[in-house]
Amino acid sequence: MSIKKIIPCLDVDDGKVVKGVKFEGIKEVGDPVELAKKYCADGADELAFLDIGASVKSRATLIEVVRKVAAEVTVPFCVGGGIRTVEDAKAIIEAGGNKVSVCSSALARPQLLRELADAFGSQAVMLAIDAKKVADVNGNQDSNKSRWNAFSKGGKEDTGIDAIEWAVKAVELGAGEIMVNSIDADGTCAGYDLELTRKIASAVKVPVIASGGAGSLEQIAEVLLNTDADAALVASLLHFEKTTVTEIKKFLENKGISVKR
To answer: If residue 216 lies in a helix (H) or strand (E), which one and from where to where?
Structure first.
């Protein structure tokens, strides 16, 4: 088994880390720089920052956060939210970010993925897919015929685009990594969407990060053991101090999962 990564995710709004459930009920949980330092020291393999405000004001604030984080941590980190152009991504990279993540902007203009890959290399381009299970034309959600659509605008707008097909297309355009975020599971602590993660991971040849729903050590192990995901994104469990990166990795090792110590 390949070495699996644990990636703390920090949703940032107006310079503070926040967390919600299914993209709603947002509450403040801490300072992004202090949390980044804490998770880095505890053994995080990478970090992910998402500007959930993505306004002009929050963009300037996020750039400053990126600079401060880059000066304090030694692990790679990805930054997303509101990146619509190569120039937006360049500002993140120049401030110290190692990768950029795009979601809504790529759905609106898929060519952005190719432009970013040409400018910075595919290894610096992550596609985030906010996916939600939808019923078929007859209103059924038969598990054997499950379909997930890719949503944009912070999980509020159904694009009607099949999430698995979108992942495949995105990789062809230049995405070097896919983050699969289940809207149904986000912040619920009820576990990752294993079926969705499994289908996307088996459809693409780039690293896949499972996101949305981690509520226990067992659930983190489950998604890494039962899908081809290369990493697990963790937020609530860490932000609310229910566990630590060190404890997660020890648990995974005991389950026979290879992790970097």
So the answer is: none
With a CB cutoff of 8 Å and minimum separation 6, the contacts of 87 are none
Q: Which domain holds residue 217?
A: 5-254
Residue 212 inside a domain? The answer is yes
Number of domains in the chain: 1
The residue type found at 22 is K
Pairing of strands 99-102, 157-162: unpaired
Whole-number Å distance between alpha carbons of 205 and 45? 21
**pLDDT tens profile 218-241:** 999 999 999 999 999 999 899 999
Per-residue pLDDT band at 56 (split at 50, 70, 90)? very low
Torsion angle, alpha carbons of 58, 62, 63, 66, to 10: 180
How confident is the model over 237-246, as a mean pLDDT? 95
Does some domain include residue 173? Answer: yes
Look at phi and psi of residue 76 and say left if phi exceeds 0, alpha if psi is from -120 to 50, else beta: beta
For residue 176, which phi and psi values (nearest 5 degrees)? -100, 0
Residues that are catalytic: 11, 130
- Using alpha carbons, select from 100, 106, 107 the residue that is nearest to residue 122: 100
Give this prediction's pTM. Answer: 0.91
Whose tokens are 């202090």? That residue is 34
Flag whether 26 is in a domain. Answer: yes
> How far apart (Å, rounded) are the C-alpha atoms in residues 112 and 104?
11
CATH, residue 30 = 3.20.20.70
Residue tagged 């991504």 (tokens): 89
DSSP assignment of 227-251: S--SEEEE-HHHHTTS--HHHHHHH
Whether 261 is in a domain gets the answer no
